[in-house]
Amino acid sequence: MNNILTLNKISKNGLDRFGERYVCSNDVKDPDAILVRSASMHEYDFSENTLAIARAGAGVNNIPLDECAKKGIVVFNTPGANKNGVKELVLAGLFLTSRDVIGGVEWCREHAGEEDITKKMEKSKKAFAGNEIKGKKLGVIGLGAIGCEVANAAAALGMEVYGYDPFISVNAAWMLSRSVKHIMDVNTIYKDCDYITVHVPLLDSTKEMINKDAFDQMKDGVVILNYARDLLVNDDDMAEALKSGKVKKYITDFPNAKTSAMEGVIATPHLGASTEESEDNCAVMAADELKDYLENGNIKNSVNYPACDMGICQVAGRIGLLHANIPNMIGQITSILAAEGINIANMTNKSRDKYAYTLLDLENPVKEEAVAHLEKISGMYKVRVIKG
C-alpha cells in the first residue's frame, strides 16, 4: 500500500488513477509521495520514506529541488498539461489589450438604466475602438509547450509571429507552424514586435529579463503579456515604461502590490491554468508519473533527475539508485552486486547536472546485505528495491 499526501485540492480525475493499492489524503503521515499544486514546500520537513513529489502544473518554484535531489526525492511536473488553458487566456489578453473591451463594459455599467444610453453610446464608443491584431507582429519568447501553442494560434489569427528559444526541443520544433519565424536573437523581438508575450521558466538568467534595457529597444506603444512568472518583469522599470508611453498596456496573471496599482495594467488573479480541464489534465499526468515511478522506477518529466524508462520489470528484481553524478559510482555498484552473487540483466544510467539515476534489472532477488552495502557508498542518496 502506498500513501499519497495531497497538499492542495487535487482533481478527482487524477486521484482516481491510483486505484486500490493507494491511499490519497491531505492528512497522510509519512507519505511515499506527495501531490502538490501551489503550496510552498520550502519549509517542509521531508520524511525519509518520501520517494517523489509531483507538481500538478509546470512551475516548481514552490519546491526545494536541490534539497529533494540530495534526499533522493524525485520531483516531477506536468509540462503541457495546461497548455490549452494558458493559450486561450493569452489570446484573451491579446484581444483585451488591443480593443478596450474592459473600458467599454465599465462605460455601460456607469450608464446602466439611462433612457438615452443608446444615443450616448454612439457618441462614446470611439474611445474604446482600439486596433485589430491581424497583421500585427507578435514576439513569443520561449517555445515550450505553451509558447508553441500561442505562436501557432496567433499565426492562425493572421498575426506575423516571431518565436525565440535558443533551447527549443525537437518535439517543440515539429509542433511549430511553418509560418512562425524562428529567430536566434531576442533583440529582434524587442525591436520589431507590437506585442511581446513571455513563456520561459524563472531562472537566474531570466529573472527580470523584461527591464529598462529591453524596453529601450522596443517600439513606443508596445504591449507586454506575462502569463509565465511574476519575477520575469522588473516592476519598477515597467512602471516607468507605462508612464512614458513606451509600453501601452501590460497584462499579467501575477498581480502584486506594485503592478495592481499601476495605470495601464490589466491584471488577472493567476487564472492561466485554472480551468477545470487544465486541473484535470495536470492531476492525471502527475498521478501517472508518480505511479510509474513508485511501481516501476521509471522517471518521466522530472525537474531534478534525468528521464529513464525501462518499462515493467520482467525478471526477478529491480533496484533504483539515486546518487551524485561522480566518477566510479557504476563500478562500485556493480562490484557490490557481483560480490553478493547478483547478476545484472539490464541497466540504465542517466545523469542530469549534479545528480544521476541508475536503474537495474536483476536476475536474482535483491539481498538485504547488498542494499546495506549500496547505501554506504559515498554520494549515494537513496537505494530503492522496486521488485524482489
How does this structure look, described?
- This protein folds into three domains: 114 residues, Rossmann fold; 185 residues, Rossmann fold (3-Layer(aba) Sandwich), CATH 3.40.50; 80 residues, ACT domain (Alpha-Beta Plaits, 2-Layer Sandwich).
- It has 388 residues and is an alpha/beta fold.
- The protein is elongated and about 90 Å long.
- It is built from 13 helices and 16 strands.
- The chain has a seven-stranded parallel beta sheet with strand order 8-7-6-9-10-11-12, sandwiched between helices.
- The mean pLDDT is 95.
**Major sheet characteristics:** 7 strands, parallel
Helix count equals: 13
Range of helix content: 25-40%
Supply the CATH class of the largest domain: Alpha Beta
Tally of strands:
16
Structural class: alpha/beta
Residue stretches low in confidence (pLDDT < 50, at least 5 long) are none
Q: Reading side by side through the largest sheet, how are the strands ordered?
A: 8-7-6-9-10-11-12
In sequence order, what are the helices and strands, one letter per element? Answer: EHEEEHEHHHEHEHEHEHEHEEHEHEEHE
**Proportion of strand residues:** 15-25%
Question: So what's the overall shape?
Answer: elongated
Q: Please tell me how large the radius of gyration is.
A: 25 Å
Instruction: Spell out the CATH superfamily of the largest domain.
Output: NAD(P)-binding Rossmann-like Domain
Mean pLDDT: 95
Separation of termini? 16 Å
Q: What is the number of independent domains? A: 3
The CATH topology assignment of the largest domain is Rossmann fold
CATH architecture of the largest domain: 3-Layer(aba) Sandwich
